[in-house]
């Protein structure tokens, strides 16, 4: 029987890859932070002079909250929150540019250039990353904890990047077709309806406004290619 959704560690890694850091907790104190995750799933943080972690020269026990948002009709809705707990340490000099690029994909900030060009200077912004200890997640009705190995050994959905582009296109140009197809499959009207998640195992649609429901449509078999993903999605969009 095909999986209806990605394995949980893959799902959380994919969610983290599309998230931006919003809050840091160090020594029990909460403060805002700019950052994202690198290719290995580790949070990477832009830390400015005067912020609690800027003087760090060893490591420190911290937690970083990553929030993934979905924009529907110009309004942001939270998809999930991933809290990564671990030890903050300086990004090595030979990896600092890659860390800056990972953050820039989510947050454009001139201080990223300063962190690269001023690496090692006591007055320059710094780039730090987390050595992951455990990951706490809350997404939809699912919540729990992954240990470091479960999280780090998983990989994001290999079709995640193109899936996000397809999802944005459908929500921007084909919502009427989506509503008709979903209504046909459910046997009842479905308005308003948005494509909420799209991955190699299926699609999740968001139906309703004030009290929205999430409905999952698994594919008969996992999509292994972009073409396979698009063909699977047509089964929902087709109104015939």
UniProtKB/TrEMBL annotation:
InterPro entries assigned: Haem_oxidase_HugZ-like_sf (IPR037119)
Highest taxon above the source species: Bacteria
Protein's recorded name: DUF2470 domain-containing protein
Organism of derivation: Nonomuraea dietziae
Organism ancestry: Bacteria, Bacillati, Actinomycetota, Actinomycetes, Streptosporangiales
